[in-house]
Amino acid sequence: MAEDLAIRKGNKTENYQSIIPQIRALIEGEPDLIANLANIIGALKEQFNWFWVGFYLVKGEELVLGPFQGPVACTRIRKGRGVCGSSWEKAQTLIVPDVQAFAGHIACSSLSKSEIVVPIVRSGAVLGVLDVDSDQVDSFDETDKKFLEQITEFICFDV
Ligand code: SME
After folding, report:
1. Is 86 in the pocket of ligand 1 (CB under 6 A)?
2. Residue 95 near residue 116, CB atoms below 8 Å
3. Does ligand 1 have an atom closer than 6 angstroms to the CB of 113?
4. What domains, with CATH codes, occur in the chain?
5. Which of 108, 112, 134, 140 maximizes ligand 1 atoms within 8 Å of its Cβ, making it the mutation to test the pocket?
6. Full-model pTM
């Protein structure tokens, strides 16, 4: 595995199309879930330089913080709470253009302005979420949803 990523500086679609095959190559053949989640986050941070990007994993009745890059974050989030807990409860991707307008948003940082949360769903059950925060409003759209959902689909959770 080559450790150096090629970082594309094109439009959003081009950037996802460039980084996704590299992410697949990074995690291919590696069975350790945490190692793979950590490398996925590292690659996404390098490509997009988002304010915060990370995984939360379902453990019992809570989401528990997993591999991430960015400022320190809330460790545990209950089902239905905040954007992450709502995405878990609905088993749906949530795009929040302005976090201040989302009732119940959990502000881990006052610098976070918009957010997208993508659930990791297997056989109808949510196993975790991929959470991305931006320090600008309205950063995420259907393009992010499409490609981030692709990423959550190819993570191997057979551990
Ligand atoms: N804002 C999230 C909490 C997680 S942090 O953004 C890292 C939420 O409302 O669920």
Report:
1. no
2. yes
3. no
4. 50-153 (3.30.450.40)
5. 108
6. 0.96
Mean pLDDT, residues 38-57 taken together: 98
- Strand 114-122: give its sheet, edge to edge: 76-78, 62-69, 52-59, 125-134, 114-122, 94-96
Alpha carbon 96 to chain centroid distance? 14
SS3 percent helix, strand, coil of the chain, rounded to 5, is 35, 25, 40
The confidence score (pLDDT) of residue 158 equals 73
Ligand 1 proximity of 114 Cβ (cutoff 6 Å): no
Beta strands in 12-154 (DSSP E): 52-59, 62-69, 76-78, 94-96, 114-122, 125-134
Mean pLDDT of 13-28: 97
Phi-psi region of 80 (alpha: psi -120 to 50; beta: other; left: phi over 0): left
Query: Over the chain, what is the mean pLDDT?
Result: 96
Pairing of strands 52-59, 62-69: antiparallel
Task: Please tell me the distance from the alpha carbon of residue 140 to that of residue 104, in angstroms, as a whole number.
Answer: 19
